[in-house]
Amino acid sequence: MIRRYDQRQHETPRERARVAAELQEEARQLTETATLAAPAPATAPPVPTLPHSNGNGNGKKKNGKGAKHEPGRTEAECALAAIDAALAGEPGSITLLLNHASQLGAMGRYAAARADLEQALALEPANLTVRSALGIVLLRKGLWADAVPHLRRVVEVESWSPTAWFYLGEALNHVDDLDGALTAYRRAAEIDPHHVKALHGQGVVLDRLRRPEDATTMYRRSRQVAAR
Asked: How many CB atoms lie within 10 A of CB 182?
């Protein structure tokens, strides 16, 4: 059980060390339900999966059958080949470029996915789906600073999106903009009070800001929400 800490408990170095140890234990327990926001590339979110398309938007050939499986190729490789074929006929299709990037991301080929998304963004600079996907790919590659301007642009337009605010918080935390990260995480939690990762992210940032009591409160809240 997590105990409540009062001001007197922080008067000695021993008590402060005990508080820090318990905060670390809370963070460890939360790893099963939330992504830690401490600076490390491994915490980056997965690339969003978009429905694959061969031009008709449903991931199937126009005859109603899925992509043909070829001997010696994995299912993922066959899906990528099908999108490649569709792109050959529609090289400027934003939908196909998004799906191509999504498939590449699922295969761990983030540099190639980034190239697709940058091409799509050049074609449609105002497309927030493309910009958001590019920001997440950059996060996945650990390119936190490069992701920030894209994610900022997304929240400027889609200020109602807790997911966009959360990812911005992740990026800002990793570039050590702690005040900005805390604001972003708080905004995500205001929009969605059940956003466990945004609540936990606040705890991590508050820990980094040396505010252990406030961090404890946020860790507790995230645990309570996760348990529901």
From this structure: 23
Region at 18 (left for phi over 0; alpha for psi -120 to 50; beta for the rest):
alpha
**Placement of tokens 């031009």 in the chain:** 55
Closest CA to 224 of 192, 206, 200, 205: 200
Q: Does the predicted model carry a pTM greater than 0.85? A: no
What 8-state DSSP symbol labels residue 70?
-
**Where is average pLDDT lowest: 83-92, 164-173, 176-185?**
83-92
Q: What is the pLDDT of residues 56-69, one digit of tens each?
A: 333 333 333 445 55
DSSP label of 9: G
- Helix 196-208, helix 162-174: angle, nearest 10: 20
Total number of domains in the chain? 2
User: In this structure, what CATH number is given to the domain that contains residue 169?
Assistant: 1.25.40.10
Domain co-membership, 75 together with 161: no
For the CA atoms of 108, 35, 29, 187, what is the dihedral angle to 10 degrees? Answer: -170
- 49/39 same-domain check: no
Cβ pair 222, 200 in contact under 8 A: yes
CA distances from 136 to 105, 163, 186 (A): 10, 11, 20
Return the number of other C-beta atoms located less than 10 Å from residue 219's C-beta: 27
Q: Which of 109, 126, 141 is the last residue of a domain?
A: 141
pLDDT in tens, 111-137: 999 999 999 999 999 999 999 999 999
pLDDT of residue 185 exceeding 60, the answer is: yes
Domain extent for 137: 45-141
